[in-house]
């Protein structure tokens, strides 16, 4: 399958429908609707970006990015349409994102990986994300729901920021190799 990628700054009606359908099976419709609300607010401040993957005219998956001014980084949600799962679409979206992030204004991407989901941690570690912090309790958008503890990881795309990181001899917390080495 040959994917076509497109960057947008708005969550239009077609993209919104694909976003809801892709993520509702993972975090529930109420959770996705909260993310859509956030996207609509962030669009007003130019803090929202969307990377869409298409096969012909069908949206196969997308990555919705939210700029967090407090952290100075983008974070996002990746979703693959249920009909296109198990075809490496998510990996292809992530690869395209990483190739084109800097030219689309993304200097740092922040990801929180819940410690209960070892797959997401290993995925980030293999893609050279740097673990920079630990969140003792990660909450969902739904009241009273917790995803448990999480690790916060960065991928730095801006060469100047990466140089600064390396010059200050900052190191990743090395969370994946320490935590999961014994389980492989």
Return the average pLDDT rounded to an integer.
83
Figure out the total of helices: 5
> Any low-confidence stretches, pLDDT <50, length ≥5?
180-184
Cα-based radius of gyration, to the nearest Å: 16 Å
Reading the helices and strands in chain order gives EHEEEHEHEEHH
How many distinct beta strands?
7
Structural class by sheet pairing and helices: alpha+beta
* Largest sheet strand order: 1-2-3-4-5-7-6
Note the main sheet. Answer: 7 strands, mixed
Protein described:
By secondary structure, the protein is of the alpha+beta class. 37% of the residues lie in helices and 33% in strands. The chain has 5 helices and 7 strands; from the N terminus they run E-H-E-E-E-H-E-H-E-E-H-H. The protein has helices at 13-44, 89-100, 118-126, 159-167, 175-180; strands spanning 4-8, 48-55, 58-68, 73-80, 108-114, 130-139, 146-156. Strands 1-2-3-4-5-7-6 form a 7-stranded mixed sheet, sandwiched between helices. A hairpin with a 6-residue loop joins strand 6 and strand 7. The longest helix is centred in the first third of the chain and has 32 residues, at 13-44. The two termini are 32 Å apart. The relative contact order is 0.13. The model is unreliable at 180-184 (pLDDT under 50).
